[in-house]
Amino acid sequence: MMNYARDRTEPPREPAPAVEARALTVVRGDRTVLRGLGFTVEPGRITGLLGPSGCGKSTLMRAVVGTQAKVTGTLDVLGHPAGHPALRPRVGYVTQAPSVYTDLTVRQNLDYFAAVLRPGRRHRDARGEAVTRAIDDVDLASHTDALAGTLSGGQRSRVSLAVALLGTPELLVLDEPTVGLDPVLRRDLWHLFHTLAAERGTTILVSSHVMDEAERCHRLLLMREGEILADDTPAALRARTGSDTVEAAFLHLVDEASATATRQEATR
Amino acid sequence: MNTTGPHTLSPARTTATAARVLRQLRHDPRTIALLLVVPVLMITLLRYVFDGSPQTFDSIGASLLGIFPLITMFLVTSIATLRERTSGTLERLLAMPLGKGDLIAGYALAFGAVAVAQSVLATALSVWVLGLDVTGSPWLLLLVALLDALLGTALGLFVSAFAASEFQAVQFMPAVIFPQLLLCGLFTPRDQMAPVLERISDVLPMSYAVDGMNQVLHHTGVTTDFVRDVLVVAGSALLVLCLGAATLRRRTA
Ligand SMILES: Nc1ncnc2c1ncn2[C@@H]1O[C@H](COP(=O)(O)OP(=O)(O)OP(=O)(O)O)[C@@H](O)[C@H]1O
Ligand SMILES: [Mg+2]
């Protein structure tokens, strides 16, 4: 085992950020998808990651959970470099496309992933409880014995979300978890996210296309073409741009950035 | 950056993985039926094709008992692991505290179990119903068949890393298996081939799989050649499994 005693002897100042990036750059294929990002994610809070399609949200999340290759710069997650083996039980990750076994039932899927997180016969009862709770959390109790392959798209993505909730992770990385869900379910899930943050102190990094969801985040990271446009609270963003909604603030910032980019092109 | 993680096996995670793979298979009864019935049908067919020359049936039949598990497990594993890669579950698993060895051993265990069922059926039928004349113990036939199945699983796992689609994966079957089939001594004794081909067949694991079967066929006890055959097949399976583990990357582009 490695010794992390250093962390403990330091005086408790401001809580350490759950995620801290400096000069984070990611190359995919021959494109530089993330360009020298610097940002932090506060612990125990919900941070929304917003930006147009293709701006690099999923890439950023993959870097945080340690599945992205060709990452340079500094990226620390819960006090370890991203991808450190010690992080694997502590970080829950929901990919953008639901990643579950379509030829297993909902419960069988969760049973397996639970056994990976907490193996051994000793934990069988605890696992059973965690599975039942996760199924209830995503409101799939009526479909526990249905094959994941026969579920609707939204139901399947909820199974995928349930898997991430299994191990009570300290950091939840959710890539567009509410896409394709109806308003009632979306409200319920956001309620769940807030409960997780408030009661279990879970840090949540969630990407979204839906701007009214942005209002429900504690902080927002606005991205555009691999760069971070803004890192602020929803209220501060609205105030700074003189907009009524985060959507308007976002559009304002994107337009501003595009204008700057065009001007720079012109002067070159 | 060190992202390979611990290489120690966790028995509980391995068996959980094996149980999951078998559970997936159970939801697909047609595949199970095909896995179990096709070898039995083929061996029966062979018996009546060589109705007039039982000796030929003995030697080809015994060889086939070793080749079936290799081919079927190759196909099943390569498709199963390819699916695991494309469905995103592999990425998810590798972001969880699961060792690569656990995953691979889980697959080997699950498909090994299927191979045992398949081989027991085919061997029992051949020996007791179709009159396959084995001098040695049928248990030794079963042992070689099981090792062949593991070799097939290992090869399937390995090539699935190089297949981007199911189409490509099945095309690896003729590419990887057919040359071995031609050179393994099933069609002509290996010492009657062109010297170059004999040399090549010396390094192909299926040659030893088939030779192992024939050793059991012709000898009562465990011969040194049989021991060599078993060790070569087991060793190749292990080697290819390790190569397969190396193709599982926690970080992908
Ligand atoms: N496997 C890959 N190889 C090469 N480039 C890729 C790969 N995956 C994504 N990209 C590129 O990386 C960029 C960012 O992709 P990413 O998936 O992170 O976007 P995103 O913000 O999540 O978009 P969306 O909102 O549509 O999900 C895109 O320009 C995309 O073309
Ligand atoms: Mg995305």
Task: Describe this protein's structure.
The complex is a heterodimer of chains A (268) and B (253). Chain A is 39% helix and 23% strand. In chain A, helix 3 (106-117) packs across helix 4 and helix 8 (234-241) packs across helix 9 (246-267). Chain A is built from nine helices and ten strands. The termini of chain A are far apart. Chain A is globular, with a radius of gyration of 19 Å. The longest helix of chain A is centred in the last third of the chain and has 22 residues, at 246-267. In chain B, helix 2 packs antiparallel against helix 3, helix 5 packs antiparallel against helix 6 (138-160) and helix 6 packs antiparallel against helix 9. The radius of gyration of chain B is 19 Å and the shape is globular. In chain B, 47% of the residues are buried. Chain B is mainly α and 253 residues long. Chain B has one domain (11-247). Helices cover 76% and strands 0% of the residues of chain B. Chain B starts with 10 loop residues before the first helix and ends in a 6-residue tail after the last helix. Classes of the chains: A alpha/beta (268), B mainly alpha (253). The structure holds adenosine-5'-triphosphate and magnesium ion (MG). Adenosine-5'-triphosphate binds at residues 28-29, 31, 33, 51, 53-59, 96 of chain A.
